[in-house]
Amino acid sequence: MARVYDNWERLVRATLNREQLRTAGLGHERIGSGIAGAVPPSLGRTSNIDAILQAADEIQDENPNVARILCEQAYSMAQNLDPNSDGRGVLQFKTGLMSIIKQKLAKRENVRIDRNQDIEQLWEFYKLYKRRHRVDDIQRQEQNLQESGTFSSELELRSLEMRKVIATLRALVEVLEALSKDADPEGVGRLIKEELQRIKKADAALSGELTPYNIVPLEAPSLTNAIGFFPEVRGAISAIRYSEQFPRLPADFEISGQRDADMFDLLEYVFGFQKDNIRNQRENIVLAIANAQARLGIPADADPKIDEKAINEVFLKVLDNYIKWCKYLRKRLAWNSFQAINRDRKLFLVSLYFLIWGEAANVRFLPECICYIFHHMAKELDAILDHGEANPAPSCITEDGSVSFLDKIIRPIYETMAL
């Protein structure tokens, strides 16, 4: 119990520190200020205009000219997204942003602005900003600590502060990429292209800490969240990791984020679940397994493993209603016997159930219908897992050849209910 209380105190302390820094503009969800906080939803959902304007506000005192370049690019993006200002609040936003740009130009005090030099000035500022904040060195240090599995409050504080720097760099990179299209391909344009290629190969420095998540950062490593260092969580992540015994995924199947392939990638491919549902339920399963393991009170090894008792607890709890449904209808379960299925199959079935529920819309309020859907899809999954190659489930293949659980399973039921 002492270890559980210690873990809980560490997690609460880390959360409080992160919340304090978040409200100061350094946390996981940076709060936009000024014009950055006034970006209309119709523009913010499809672009990073708010992040670019936030970066412009933060570097205004350091380099007003670069701040002006960022604001002009944000205005150009808004104009391209909604040229007629049809969206709610778009006209007011554009008017306010143009007013700010004019103010920045007026402060130049008759200094001639050569916009042909914008890309060179932005590039020089980007390099200076990276050097001054030692981004490459700090990222290497953090990567070493991540691999060692160590965590400290000092490291957490430093990482949270770095997120502000990383967010600004990402905004600079996006504007650089946009402006480089018209740059000299043999001059600064070539340098920017090489930098962009380098970033894409080692994206952790500019995106790892800013990849969105609910509770557990699974898509990218995070040093600002203590929960990822708990042995139960590390063991749960390892438990759902892809095994060589699983059917082989196609070579062109893209693994999202900076993580290893896992069971959810197979379920996404064969049944066509939506990516957001996959991300949410991946976290849900990891937390459920980790919590069950923590309740066992088993001391953690250097290489933490999930006990079979924890797997069984989650399996029986999640599928309890389905088991009762089969018993009531005198139907045979989707598996031969509880003892006949290994831990991987149990985790696959639990994951499948949560994914069905997570994407079932109003059908989730019909528990018997969820049980019916799961019953047949579990049998499909059983057949798929027995093959060497992963193939889309026949029940979810659409007329155009794509795979979609929502279109083929949920939509027909929903439309029937709506009549």
TrEMBL record:
Keywords: Membrane. Its main location: membrane. One of its GO terms (molecular function) is glucosyltransferase activity. Residues 344-419 form the 1,3-beta-glucan synthase component FKS1-like domain. GO terms for cellular component: endomembrane system; plasma membrane. It is found in: Endomembrane system. Pfam families: FKS1_dom1 (PF14288). This is 1,3-beta-glucan synthase component FKS1-like domain-containing protein. It comes from the Eukaryota. Transmembrane segments: none annotated. InterPro entries: FKS1-like_dom1, Vta1/CALS_N_sf.
